[in-house]
Amino acid sequence: MSHPSFVCPDLIRQRFSKAMSDMYREEVPLYGALMELVEKTNRHVLDSDSQIARQLDSTGEIQRLDLERHGAIRVGTAQELATLARLFAVMGMQPVGYYDLTPAGVPVHSTAFRAVHEGALQVSPFRVFTSLLRLELIEDSRLRAFAQSVLDKRSIFTPSALKLIERAEAQGGLGEQDAQDFVEQALETFRWHHNATVTAGQYQQLSAQHRLIADVVAFKGPHINHLTPRTLDIDIVQAQMPEHGITPKAVIEGPPRRQCPILLRQTSFKALDEPVAFADQGDTPGSHSARFGEIEQRGAALTAKGRALYDRLLNAARDELQDFPNEANAARYNALMTQHFSEFPDTLEGMRQQELAYFRYFVTEKGLSANGLCDASLEDLLRDGHVRMEPLVYEDFLPVSAAGIFQSNLGDAAQTHYGVHSNRQAFETALGRPTVDELGLYAETEQRSIGDCYLALGIAINK
Q1: Which 3-state string (H, E, C) describes 409-457?
Q2: What family does the Swiss-Prot or TrEMBL record give for this protein (predicted)?
Q3: φ and ψ at residue 286, rounded to 5 degrees
Q4: Is 92 in contact with 148 (CB distance < 8 Å)?
Q5: What angle, rounded to 10 degrees, do the helices at 29-48 and 50-59 form?
Q6: pLDDT tens digit string along 227-284?
Q7: Burial of 105 by CB count in 10 Å (0-12 exposed, 13-18 middle, 19+ buried)?
Q8: Pairing with 205, which of 40, 54, 190, 368 sits 20 to 30 Å away (CA)?
């Protein structure tokens, strides 16, 4: 049991998210411009669309909208991944989901560290998409051994951060001063490093295998490579980015524009070309491209049935396109997506009736004042207006979208074909624990909301 003087992990996570955003704004000036555009767009949507404003207010999402961020980080060894899991645990974050990006030519597998309970997510929805490099995919055995030796020599956590992690584990939490120190020390793991740990030639060898391999191996720490705010209308942001000096990628990743958004849509600007001092170049800088800006719009979390339908329609559109979506075919791709996704119901009731999405249920004023509801079913309560529903927001990531973002920002040459299968067991062994099933979390949240409604209305829970 946590001591009453300990700072709540959700508040530590909230503070860390704010500190991360401040640091990234200093390191990547375009991030500041992006944030201003997203904030302006969100204000416009809330002012002009009363339905969205009502929905966000009734679910409590309006309070978390300005806090919403997701970051991404890539590590090189099992020990780094396992220690990151311990660091994130101090902030109440667990590894949710397993993502294999090798089918898209990206030599990593990943998880998303985040809070898992809807109450904790309301305090801070901060999440970090965390990837582990698959060194076994480096074909050249000598280069693979070199990469391993470089990674083995580095320590990506400050000594103070490690001590604070151990203290939190031993005590069950951190007091106020320790929590402040933890945020400060943990932030160092995510900071950008201009000095490479390899020579220019070694960097080129790693980059020739895959630019992401060079990004992970060639530096003393795994810098945060993007930090993503949530917008309420990604199409407006995409259209207005050029006016703010930002060049967006050609295609928004994820599902097409809909009346009822589903899953996740993302867009971004290309990786920055940043000066780097290689180990053998002294004051003559080289360059490295890794960090980029990204924006997301979140929709309803889909059930397994909904995900299967989403995957089928997405694959059908891409199969008909017969190419990777790019600037030349963007208009045709968008048209194909709209065409194929016409099969996916675009009303909340349609998605609920076909069991395609998860929902949260809330008792209405009418329900609270009603009598004789002890025998009512959920369908009865919805029909008679005693209970209302709202889509459960999707808190996770899309494997295809994540891979698409990586490819489009690292450049077309970054894509490689790997003839290997995913290895969830190896990832979870490195992590030191199983990943959490995201669909199970959504189902639990939905059931809790139904149980809360029944309790408030005096209905037996087994209804």
Answers
A1: HHCHHHCCCCCCCCCHHHHHHHHCCCCECHHHHHHHHHHHHHHHHHHHH
A2: Belongs to the 2-oxoadipate dioxygenase/decarboxylase family.
A3: -100, -155
A4: no
A5: 110
A6: 888 999 999 999 998 888 888 888 899 999 999 999 999 988 776 778 888 888 766 6
A7: middle
A8: 190
